[in-house]
């Protein structure tokens, strides 16, 4: 068994509330020590010793919302290409959305994903299965069998279930299996032909707007159903203060409710759309600066539990179009950590909280291994220079699609090495 | 046009929207257009200003009026004009746009005129081609030559736009004409009012430099200019307003409602009109109507725009063409 010793690193482990200089020892697939106490622990003969002075070791990121094109859209992204991008971004586990072709709504597809990941991926890939067959919002999938096969959550991906009865039954039935229903909410009638946040900016551009209420109305409905059913409900990607308030109220009522936000909605606002820049066409749409600040505040006060990349590879066919005709979505695996560290560098959040919402909290929420540097845990960890500045360049992107919202952005904090179960999967 | 060479060099390569123009740019185009009106009224209407230059009209939305206006303008300037008929069916619009842009670009045109149903289409095209691009209407975004021809019509009737009160009435929400006019009229110092049922007003309208009026009586009171907008029939059948009958009752321009405006107020319409829907025939054909003049000014404005964009001094002086 090979041993690696990371010496004198700043160890940031939210699972233990730990932020101290110490040593991390990895033996084979596992962490055997991580903390100040290990500083003077001798390394066994033949161990690789890495001096990490001035650098940090964090648990690998657990990205709860990743769209991948395999099967059906391999020209946009494969499980292998997404995992290369993830490793470079310090993401050691991804939850893969079921919006593939065919849809991940049956056991065979879950097995396909796990098999393909085992054979081709360098990071952990956990499939989320569809709530309804074909993502059509009508018939429930086999939650029990899918869960046994390895689906870690249930979500209709980009789709919102419009039928309240279907949602009620899904929440109720999922409860029997301890499964979490993950839902992105947008009322399709109210959103109409909207393509960006409703308001003055959209009006001048001549683009149809999507009001905040299009997100909040189905969300409020879901939260009522979560109270009613006592099911586990996770709001996948909220974008407005209105939604955050709804989540906070449901939590105060004791509902088993959690919420996520995409890194894009913590970093950008509607003005970034500029003159019809389709890479900034997202769902939910980028909102106002006030909404962005409200998302950060909700993350700080615990209303929002996790941050996701919402990595969504799109190619020129779907993005080099007039804004109203383009597809939603942006990639994000490689920029997730750097963009999130802005919240630390700008002193909005502590480093512990930033790593918690990127790693420890999502691992816990979805019941996944990882998110911790505890001795005995799998060695999913990242060596990062928190201070190193870098500029995002399209030609350096590893993802098969290049639709990033961060082209040219100056980020601070760079991944130096990523380890998954003790194996180095990225070294920068 | 002999006098054109004495005019200042126009600083832009494309005309994508009024938003990009300064008041000086606008006045310059209107001055040039005044000269073009004179040419169009001559017996011999053809000039050689754009001789040897190639103009392509790329219309993704049918528009007999605007397309023929651009075509005539190009021909009067001596350009070779080609109309690209675009099959708007089966193929995805956007793919066609980029592909068509690249194909047309390879034919080395000097100026492309584009009309497209999607906002931002003209700007997208301008990024992909090496020639000048004129936006002839992109979705609900802008229609700059329409605003310029409206301004020319008003200026020739009233002398000046500054401090005039202009009421824009109807479907502001979906109207590129309204947006371009709001920008242009504000730039030249006019007071702009909008009158429409609230379902046809865009979000944030009060911050767009206009006074929002709920009734025609309020909006037209002492107005110098009344601009009517076209309302698509499908939007009047329950989606935005319940019926044509109800719309005409409250927002259609008839003699009674027009009384609120100044006695010499101009009545305008970008066409094509829905008689009896947004405007009564007696008003459209009445003494205050300048709707036919607008059509004439349209040709002149388009001549002025193309001539300004393709000013030969641009190349001589090393300004990137």
TrEMBL record, chain A:
Domain Dihydroorotase catalytic, residue spans: 54-240
GO biological process, any: purine nucleobase catabolic process
GO-annotated molecular function: allantoinase activity; dihydroorotase activity; metal ion binding
Main enzyme class: hydrolase
Superkingdom per UniProt: Bacteria
Alphabetical keyword list: Hydrolase, Pyrimidine biosynthesis, Zinc
Pfam families (UniProt xref): Amidohydro_3, DHOase
EC number: 3.5.2.3
Domain Amidohydrolase: residue ranges: 346-426
Gene Ontology CC: cytoplasm
Record's protein name: Dihydroorotase
Keyword Hydrolase assigned: yes
Matches recorded under InterPro entries: Amidohydro_3, DHOase, DHOase/Allantoinase_Hydrolase, DHOase_cat, Metal-dep_hydrolase_composite, Metal_Hydrolase
Automatic annotation (TrEMBL), chain B:
Enzyme class at the top of the EC tree: transferase
Listed EC numbers: 2.1.3.2
Pfam family, one: OTCace_N
GO terms under cellular component: cytosol
Known pathway: Pyrimidine metabolism; UMP biosynthesis via de novo pathway; (S)-dihydroorotate from bicarbonate: step 2/3
Residues that bind carbamoyl phosphate: 65-66, 115, 143, 146, 271-272
UniProt keyword annotations, A-Z: Pyrimidine biosynthesis, Transferase
Domain Aspartate/ornithine carbamoyltransferase Asp/Orn-binding positions: 164-308
Keyword Protein transport applies: no
InterPro entries: Asp/Orn_carbamoyltranf_P-bd, Asp/Orn_carbamoylTrfase, Asp/Orn_carbamoylTrfase_sf, Asp_carbamoyltransf, Asp_carbamoyltransf_Asp/Orn-bd
Gene3D superfamilies (alphabetical): Aspartate/ornithine carbamoyltransferase (3.40.50.1370)
Keyword Hydrolase: no
Signal peptide: none
Domain spans labelled Aspartate/ornithine carbamoyltransferase carbamoyl-P binding: 13-155
Reactions catalysed, as given in the entry: carbamoyl phosphate + L-aspartate = N-carbamoyl-L-aspartate + phosphate + H(+)
GO BP term (any one): 'de novo' pyrimidine nucleobase biosynthetic process
Residues involved in L-aspartate binding: 93, 176, 230
GO molecular function: amino acid binding; aspartate carbamoyltransferase activity
Source taxon at top rank: Bacteria
PANTHER family with a match to the protein in the record: ASPARTATE CARBAMOYLTRANSFERASE, ORNITHINE CARBAMOYLTRANSFERASE, MITOCHONDRIAL
HAMAP family the record matches: Asp_carb_tr
Similarity comment: Belongs to the aspartate/ornithine carbamoyltransferase superfamily. ATCase family.
Role summary: Reversibly catalyzes the transfer of the carbamoyl group from carbamoyl phosphate (CP) to the N(epsilon) atom of ornithine (ORN) to produce L-citrulline.
Matches recorded under NCBIfam families: asp_carb_tr, PRK00856.1
Subunit organization: Heterododecamer (2C3:3R2) of six catalytic PyrB chains organized as two trimers (C3), and six regulatory PyrI chains organized as three dimers (R2).
Protein name: Aspartate carbamoyltransferase
Species name: Mesorhizobium zhangyense
């Amino acid at each position: 068994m090979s041993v690696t010793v990371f010496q004198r690193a700043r160890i940031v482990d939210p699972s233990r509330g730990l932020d101290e200089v110490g040593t991390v020892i990895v033996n084979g697939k596992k962490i055997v020590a991580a903390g100040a106490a290990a500083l003077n622990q001798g390394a066994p003969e033949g161990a690789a010793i890495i001096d990490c002075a001035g650098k940090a070791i964090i648990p690998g990121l657990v990205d709860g919302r990743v769209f991948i094109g395999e099967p059906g859209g391999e020209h946009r992204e494969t499980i292998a290409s997404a995992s290369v991008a993830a490793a470079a971004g310090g993401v050691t586990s991804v939850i893969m959305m079921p919006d593939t072709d065919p849809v991940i709504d049956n056991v065979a597809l879950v097995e396909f994903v796990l098999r393909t990941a085992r054979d081709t991926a360098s990071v952990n890939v956990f499939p989320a299965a569809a709530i309804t067959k074909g993502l059509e919002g009508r018939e429930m999938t086999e939650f029990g069998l899918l869960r046994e096969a390895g689906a870690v959550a249930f979500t209709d991906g980009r789709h919102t279930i419009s039928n309240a009865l279907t949602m009620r039954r899904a929440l109720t039935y999922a409860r029997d299996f301890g499964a979490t229903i993950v839902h992105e909410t947008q009322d399709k009638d109210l959103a109409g032909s909207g393509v960006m946040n409703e308001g003055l900016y959209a009006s001048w551009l001549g683009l149809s707007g999507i009001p905040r209420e299009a997100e909040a109305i189905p969300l409020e409905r879901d939260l009522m159903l979560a109270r009613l059913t006592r099911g586990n409900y996770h709001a996948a990607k909220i974008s407005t203060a209105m939604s955050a308030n709804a989540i906070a109220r449901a939590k105060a009522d004791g509902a088993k409710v959690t919420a996520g936000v995409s890194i894009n909605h913590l970093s950008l606002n509607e003005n970034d759309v500029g003159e019809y820049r389709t890479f900034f066409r997202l769902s939910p749409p980028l909102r106002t600066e006030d909404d962005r600040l409200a998302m950060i505040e909700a993350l700080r006060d615990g209303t929002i539990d996790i941050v996701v990349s919402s990595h969504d590879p799109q190619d020129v066919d779907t993005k080099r179009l007039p804004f109203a005709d383009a597809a939603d979505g942006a990639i994000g695996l490689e920029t997730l950590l750097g963009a999130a560290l802005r919240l630390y560098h700008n002193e909005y959040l502590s480093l512990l909280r930033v790593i918690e919402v990127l790693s420890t909290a999502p691992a816990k929420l979805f019941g996944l291994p990882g998110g911790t540097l505890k001795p005995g845990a799998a060695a999913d960890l990242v060596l990062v220079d928190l201070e190193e500045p870098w500029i995002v360049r399209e030609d350096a992107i590893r993802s098969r699609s290049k639709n990033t919202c961060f082209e040219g952005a100056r980020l601070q904090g760079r991944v130096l090495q990523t380890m998954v179960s003790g194996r180095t999967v990225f070294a920068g | 046009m002999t006098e054109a060479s004495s005019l200042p060099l126009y600083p832009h390569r494309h005309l994508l929207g009024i938003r990009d123009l300064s008041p000086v740019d606008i006045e310059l185009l209107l001055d040039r257009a005044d000269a073009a009106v004179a040419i169009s009224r001559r017996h011999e209407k053809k000039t050689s200003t754009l001789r040897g230059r190639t103009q392509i009209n790329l219309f993704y939305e049918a528009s007999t009026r605007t397309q023929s206006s651009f075509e005539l303008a190009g021909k009067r300037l001596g350009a070779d004009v080609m109309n690209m008929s675009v099959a708007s069916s089966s193929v995805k619009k956007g793919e066609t746009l980029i592909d068509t842009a690249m194909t047309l670009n390879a034919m080395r045109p000097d100026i492309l005129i584009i009309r497209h149903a999607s906002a931002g289409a003209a700007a997208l095209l301008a990024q992909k081609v090496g020639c000048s691009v004129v936006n002839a209407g992109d979705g609900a975004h802008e229609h700059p030559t329409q605003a310029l021809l409206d301004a020319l019509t008003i200026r020739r009737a009233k002398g000046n736009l500054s401090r005039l009160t202009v009421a824009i009435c109807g479907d502001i929400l979906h109207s590129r004409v309204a947006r371009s006019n709001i920008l242009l009229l504000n730039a030249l110092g006019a007071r702009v009012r909008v009158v429409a049922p609230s379902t046809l007003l865009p979000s944030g309208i009060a911050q767009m430099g206009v006074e929002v009026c709920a009734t025609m009586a309020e909006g037209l009171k002492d107005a110098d200019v009344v601009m009517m907008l076209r309302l698509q029939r499908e939007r009047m059948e329950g989606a935005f307003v319940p019926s044509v009958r109800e719309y005409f009752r409250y927002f259609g321009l008839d003699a009674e409602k027009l009384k609120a405006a100044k006695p010499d107020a101009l009545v305008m319409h970008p066409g094509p009109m829905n008689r009896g829907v947004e405007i009564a025939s007696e008003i459209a054909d009445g003494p205050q109507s300048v709707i036919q003049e607008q059509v004439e000014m349209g040709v002149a404005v388009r001549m002025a725009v193309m001539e300004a964009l393709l000013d030969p001094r641009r190349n001589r002086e090393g300004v990137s063409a």
